[in-house]
């Protein structure tokens, strides 16, 4: 730390040399963490210990609220609570004696209560700054003034092997300073990172602070943003049926009511890149495929994102493929098209948001700083596979998800659309002795279910067995009226 010196004139012409301590300086951040509908965490680091103060408000020129901590620290972390949902705030950070960062670029938006158009930026294996920087520039040119709502890192977020205070400095904080101060980063742990440095660096919702079930660990957790449920897993030790992570995952998936489910971790269940998922020695990839994928697909997962293989690979709409590539059956590919609206058409899923086994997309995005031309890139579940530096951009809007792979030159190398449509509306007509339930006949694959009560958790639904009648483009079934109430729904 530099010191400054001055002279103090004393009586009788004597001079006294006075040592002055300089103002504190930022050495990291500020950066935002763990956003919810009504709260967010702000973190920063200073070169000398100070107390902590955040001023904030909805007007950059009038930061009329404040949160502080009186103890001295160099690593500062404050939780701002009582915020309005889906609202832009501006902030400054510093101490009770000085402001270290402020201005219109220090801003964030709280999470929405319900669904809203959401942009998600996905990077994997981004830990080499020389490669991550052009990937970042290409994305910022692509998104322009459009706010990045959610930011995912798929592991190997730092290749420097630095530990302690230096961990993540060059690869994360020096590479993405603008985005870090505005958009929350939700990472997963890669195999080239220290778990202790990881949990010290990031503030992650181990206690369910951001939605989902509390996991008790920052290495695996979940969170909600709008109508999307995100599940973050730690694949470094693989997965076993009775692992705490797997037991928690079952509870978390069962509790979610969101329309969309996106899961991500580091080791890919399907890849023919540098890390071949057909090798039994790649136990993390094998076990995540055999143990975790069935749970996710049982609860209607829509998209699974991974890194580790330093390539880009993206699948068909897939279901129930838990073996090696040689075990793939045609019935496991639910839509063999490329998912592009202007070519083979979008992928489509019907039924409630968490309807099981409607198919999921799998993408390996391990090429955001170090693409490697290793491996045949011919896994049969993949629509496209290539080696290129870049990132994946996801846009979710209501029942629609669009994905684009943007390379470091700004070109769109892959794109796809996934549509989720709910079940058609039921029409119910009752007479004194019978009830007729019908629905449009231009949608296939639905069966009718009924329950006498909705208060039970979960409700006890039973299938109304066919045959069903088809008349005038409608499907119908006539049932005798039974004592009490009856509720009906369509299910695929």
Summarize the structure in words:
This protein is mainly beta and 492 residues long. It has helices at 129-143, 169-173, 177-180, 195-201, 244-255, 283-298, and strands at 4-9, 15-20, 26-33, 40-57, 65-80, 88-94, 99-101, 107-109, 118-123, 150-153, 185-187, 221-225, 228-232, 260-264, 303-306, 312-315, 317-318, 333-335, 347-350, 361-365, 382-386, 390-397, 400-407, 412-421, 427-430, 434-440, 447-451, 462-464, 469-471, 474-480, 487-491. It folds into three domains: 26-108, Sandwich (Immunoglobulin-like), CATH 2.60.40; 118-421, Purple Acid Phosphatase, chain A, domain 2 (4-Layer Sandwich); 427-491. The chain has a seven-stranded mixed β-sheet with strand order 11-10-9-22-23-24-19, with helices on one face. A seven-stranded mixed β-sheet has the order 12-13-14-15-20-16-21, with no helix packed on it. A hairpin with a 5-residue loop joins strand 1 and strand 2. The N and C termini lie far apart (66 Å). The relative contact order is 0.10.
């Amino acid at each position: 730390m530099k010191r400054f010196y001055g002279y103090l004139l004393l009586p009788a012409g004597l001079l006294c040399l006075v040592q002055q301590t300089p103002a504190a300086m930022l050495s990291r951040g500020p950066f935002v963490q763990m956003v919810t509908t009504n709260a967010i965490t702000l973190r920063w680091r200073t070169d000398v210990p100070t107390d902590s103060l955040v001023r904030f408000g909805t007007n950059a020129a009038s930061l009329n609220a404040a949160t502080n901590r009186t103890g001295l620290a160099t690593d500062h972390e404050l939780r701002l609570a009582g915020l309005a949902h889906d609202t832009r705030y501006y902030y400054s950070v510093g101490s009770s004696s000085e402001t270290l960062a402020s201005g219109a670029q220090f801003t964030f938006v709280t999470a929405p209560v319900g669904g809203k158009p959401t942009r998600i930026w996905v990077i994997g294996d981004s830990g080499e700054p020389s490669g991550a920087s052009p990937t970042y520039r290409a994305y910022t040119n692509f998104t322009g003034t459009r706010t990045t709502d959610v930011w995912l890192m798929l592991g190997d977020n730092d290749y420097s092997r630095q530990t302690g205070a230096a961990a993540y400095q060059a690869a994360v904080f020096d590479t993405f300073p603008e985005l870090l101060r505005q958009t929350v980063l939700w990472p997963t742990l890669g195999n080239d990172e220290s778990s202790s440095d990881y949990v010290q660096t990031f503030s992650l919702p181990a206690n369910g602070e951001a939605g989902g079930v509390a996991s008790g660990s920052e290495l695996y957790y979940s969170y909600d943003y709008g109508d999307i449920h995100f599940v973050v897993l730690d694949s470094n030790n693989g997965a076993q049926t009775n692992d705490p992570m797997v037991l928690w995952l079952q509870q978390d998936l069962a509790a979610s009511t969101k329309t969309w489910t996106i899961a991500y971790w580091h080791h890919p269940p399907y890849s023919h890149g540098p890390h071949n998922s057909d090798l039994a020695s790649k136990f993390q990839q094998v076990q995540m495929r055999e143990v975790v994928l069935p749970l996710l697909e049982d609860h209607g997962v829509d998209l699974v994102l991974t890194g580790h293989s330093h390539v880009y690979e993206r699948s068909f709409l897939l279901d129930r493929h838990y073996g090696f590539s040689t075990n793939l059956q045609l019935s496991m590919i639910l839509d063999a098209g490329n998912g592009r609206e202007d070519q083979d058409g979008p992928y489509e899923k019907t039924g409630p948001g968490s309807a099981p086994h409607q198919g999921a997309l799998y993408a390996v995005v391990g090429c955001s700083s170090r693409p490697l031309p290793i491996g045949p890139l011919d896994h049969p579940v993949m629509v496209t596979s290539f080696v290129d530096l870049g990132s994946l951009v996801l846009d979710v809007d209501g029942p629609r998800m669009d994905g684009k792979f943007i390379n470091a030159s700004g070109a769109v190398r892959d794109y796809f659309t996934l549509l989720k449509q709910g079940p058609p509306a039921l029409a119910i007509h009752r007479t004194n002795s019978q009830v007729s339930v019908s629905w449009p006949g231009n949608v296939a694959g639905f069966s009718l279910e009924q329950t006498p009560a909705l208060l039970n958790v979960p409700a006890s639904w039973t299938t109304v067995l066919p045959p069903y009648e088809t008349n005038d483009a409608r499907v119908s079934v006539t049932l005798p009226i039974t004592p009490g109430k009856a509720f009906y729904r369509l299910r695929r």
